[in-house]
Amino acid sequence: MIYKDKTKPIGERVEHLLGLMTLEEKVGQLIQPFGWQTYEHIDGKIKLAESFKRQVENGGVGSLYGVLRADPWTGVTLESGLSPRLGAEAVNEIQRYAIEHSRLGIPILIGEECSHGHMAIGATVFPVPLSLGSTWNVDLYREMCRAVARETRSQGGAVTYSPVLDVVRDPRWGRTEECFGEDAYLIGQMAAASVEGLQGERLDSEDSVAATLKHFVGYGSSEGGRNAGPVHMGRRELLEVDLLPFRKAVEAGAASIMPAYNEIDGVPCTTNKELLDGVLRGEWGFDGMVITDCGAIDMLASGHDVAGDGEEAAIQAIEAGIDMEMSGEMFGKHLAEAVRAGRLDTAVVDQAVRRVLELKFRLGLFEAPYADPARAEAMIGSREHVELARKIAGEGIVLLKNEGGVLPLSAAAGKIAVIGPNADAHYNQLGDYTSPQPRSKVTTVLGGIRGKLADTPERVLYAPGCRIKGDSREGFEFALSCAERADTVVMVVGGSSARDFGEGSIDLRTGASKVTGNAESDMDCGEGIDRMSLRLSGVQLELIQEVHKLGKPLIVVYINGRPIAEPWIDEHADAILEAWYPGQEGGHAVADVLFGDVNPSGRLTVSIPKHVGQLPVYYNGKRSRGKRYLEDDAQPRYPFGYGLSYTEFGYANLTVQPASIPPDGTAKVAVDVTNTGSRAGAEVVQLYVTDVASAVTRPAMELKGFRKVYLGPGETRRVEFTVGVEELQYIGRDYKPVVEPGEFRIHVGRHVNETWSAKLIVREG
């Protein structure tokens, strides 16, 4: 059997296997049912569902989604879910049945969510991508992706539905937390690192998983910031901005891609042949697998309404270039009959099957379909990965304000009141797409501060004060009494992307947990949770204002998944930390920054407006968009790239050599960066480019390079960048990349509104 011979080329094995398959077996390879529905977990034993067995025997199953996923949507809890060892054993049971009870013994592709950690019980929960982007540390993020791949593959997961490469244009969108930020260049750098980290050097390694790029494309630019809404975008912007991170990830070797739910100019991405076959496969040479988002084909007939029924929707999708359907409903119901009736060419089905089989061969599933339960038990949630989670969370925290040097706190600073709904709510610091967690695994900000002052626990006072949402003020009195007895107040507020894990509530009058049968959800962010405002929900601002009246040093820590626009806090708080959703070690990381054990080095990857009425406020808009409103200017409160440190950095001797280059030439940009303060710290040196005059309108400034450099007190380093075609080109009038002769300005500095500039001339070729 050629297809079982690992010495044969993959292409030959694919064609041999394809030639042996019936139509039902081919269609079976293109469907992906929900994995958690294929088994029952009873008293530590795995029992396969009869419906799954029949599906295997009657044509097979190409892939399963979320065998190991646990959350309220799946209904899998800490009690009913799978431990790391048992998860690997469950995958093995599934694979064994598929291989031994199907005619051709084709292994199943196990796909899992891994946006900020393997979404399985026991796995390490890293910070959300918005925090990961804020590190500006590509190497550290790549290392994190290697850890995620190790945990996922050790349990038998072979493909992940990450990274999310959407460019955020309206932060009211609930999925902002899943994205790296608003800048396509920075996202592209993180995209390539993600693919390199997840896939490693070889896909068939026990430490590698196939990356799935999502959501292709324009998903972060939806109308009104509403999830999956229409996208109104010109072709040039699409090519220049939203497609850029995907191109970078494809160039890095990404194995899979997922079209977005949205439409662009009236064409749903799920059936956009121009993008899937034209750009992705034609221009970029992508040869991997394309899988839909969950329910996207059904949406064509009931949502977009570009198909009259499910069969028409399925035919449109596969003819446009879709290879596999997540959930599998439409493909499973309609493809075989469409072929038999002559409404769908068999060759179209065969091409999709080829891509699915090729990925399975590349992953080595035919040779090694089974997981090692002992390895899964040792790998998942390992100490090494937990330490990495703490480090990367610390680097993602952004210091927005530090009036009078109130931070870092002294270990002998007296009593500290830790107040707010996110001070000790462990799920609230984890973000969406998170599995159930035992409370002992997650360190909250309260826990992190208590850890720093473990020798004098009486110095830490705690009160929740209020909930994230709702108008109850019953906790105010207790919170104010704690604040009155303290020397410093740390207010931990923000948002929540926590699904209802049935954890109960917090007694606002005492801070104690109280278990109820119907816990009220505080969720105000996450997938499908889009907002009209960027203000704090509920009565959080009012609580902060009441505490402020006591006259104590006031430090605000935001735990949240989208920017917060609260002018009163910006003006009255002594210090502000933006921690995003920092993951399971986030409390330790926040405390590390508060007490100066970590010098903050995070920088914003999304502009934070003064008011929601300024939106869109992303930094690289066109120069013609105007400078002010009647009430205020159009500048954000905190610009892109912004972030403070406990030390200071100076820039000097900016040079561009040579000062004149041909269109295909390169120039070296260099600058001296000095730590002029008394503490060691890291500076994110940012390079921006301005095309002074161009044939089509361009942004005022565009990020084209960055370096994170670590400097001791008084240390100077010469930081260098190379500027060439990739940094100077844009999409011209003919929709082709072009480097136009003329003057460019090269800006280097600490954020987009604080740079030093030099001239670069591109002369006629």
Automatic annotation (TrEMBL):
Report which superkingdom the organism of origin falls in.
Bacteria
Q: Supply the alphabetized keyword list.
A: Hydrolase
Task: Tell me its family.
Answer: Belongs to the glycosyl hydrolase 3 family.
Query: GO:BP terms for this protein?
Result: glucan catabolic process
Where the record annotates domain Fibronectin type III-like, the positions are: 683-752
Entry's Gene Ontology molecular function annotations: beta-glucosidase activity
Source organism lineage? Bacteria, Bacillati, Bacillota, Bacilli, Bacillales
Q: Which Gene3D superfamilies does the record associate with it?
A: Glycoside hydrolase family 3 C-terminal domain, Glycoside hydrolase, family 3, N-terminal domain, Immunoglobulins
Keyword Hydrolase found: yes
Known Pfam families for this protein?
A: Fn3-like, Glyco_hydro_3, Glyco_hydro_3_C
Q: What is this protein called?
A: Beta-glucosidase
Organism of derivation:
Paenibacillus faecis
Q: Does the keyword Hydrolase apply?
A: yes
